[in-house]
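Structure request: Glutamate decarboxylase, Luteimicrobium xylanilyticum.
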Amino acid sequence: MPHAGGPHRPARRPRTADLRDVVALDPVFARPGEATELPRFRLPDQPSLPETAYQIVHDEAMLDGNARLNLATFVGTWMDDHANRLMVEAADKNVIDKDEYPQTAAVEERCWRMLAHLWHAPDVAHATGTSTAGSSEACMLGGLALKRRWVEARRAAGKPADRPNLVLSSAVQVCWEKFCNYFDVEPRYVPLTEEHKVLDGHDLEKYVDENTIGVVAIMGVTYTGMYEPVAEIAAALDRIQAATGLDVKIHVDGASGAMVAPFVQPDLAWDFRVERVASINTSGHKYGLVYPGLGWVVWRDADALPESLVFRVSYLGGDMPTFALNFSRPGAPVLLQYYQFLRLGVEGYRAVQRTSHDVARYLADGVARIGAFELWNDGSDIPVFAWRLAADHTDAGAGWTLYDLSERLRTHGWLVPAYPMPDDLTDVTVQRVVVRNGLSRDLAGAFLADLEAEVRFLDALKTPMPSAGERSAFHH
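Returned structure:
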């Protein structure tokens, strides 16, 4: 199973000051008659003025990192003022309450049908989909549909259905580990190697059998940003079916790439143009350009989403199918996604994603020119790339590691994670940069200047960096 953060590099813990029993108010903010200290871990006995409560929460949140300089996260950190207004106006809407908020429900359907069209569903009218709390829930739903379809087919054939397995790369996001754990599915991880940096269909026949519910293909591996070649995986499954009769479907985890590939690599066949693709998920809050809290999943047709998993509710005299793990959920992110679809359109998304892509390639080229590093990939898929220390700067030979560099970059405000690659490659440590909308060419140039300065600083050290204390880590 893939792990994140080095075994000798503990994750950062909350600031020790948070362990004190009280929150002390600055005299400037305390109003006459108010308490000057409030309990930290229990409800206060008395209310506070809204101005006081606001100032406390505002000051606490100020201690977080600068989201614009966070090069670790895929999640959107900026929207325009009109989107912010919509967010506030729709803060009270519950997307699951389709009877009370029928128009939000209608907008939700419009959005996933737009995605079905974008992803080349053969018949958009017969596709189905839903919004989710994020791509993790969307992955769970995609996996559940694969499992239920397999179970029903096995039972119809009079065969046992108690040992399902799912084939995936060892570099999958942790939500797939959760899916297999929570829903009693055996994960069959195909390990990455220097020769096979992604799941590409190589040796797939060693992992697929009659109990395989499906294969997961990732459009933008979290560790590196690389695409897994969906068409090549499908071709391998075609060969397996020809030899064994097993018809195994693909779920595409397009958390990031499903909102990048249609605009940056429009001719790449990874979506419903590949017949074995049964379902696709994405994160509206990643390259869908929406604030955190939104995912999407779309199924090719009704056959790909078994009716036994679908609940039906009625609104405006019509019939609305619903399939979700969460119940009450904010409706505002759905409206923000619709806003972005209307505001940007195909040309707008193309401009935004290609700009991020260009910045990623510019950064990758700049990192490659620094002699200390060797690129693992160059950002030519989604706008994400990773690097490792070059042979003459290995952890054993140099006086510093990528973990040290990550810590040094924090002094400039940059959050750039360092972590080991997944199983069978855990001896390889990489750093990764995610380029999102808002990371301009100027900011990228400033980052490269800081990176080069810190490499010069570390190279000039006469003794190794101390290893004691907390180090940065990253969780996929």
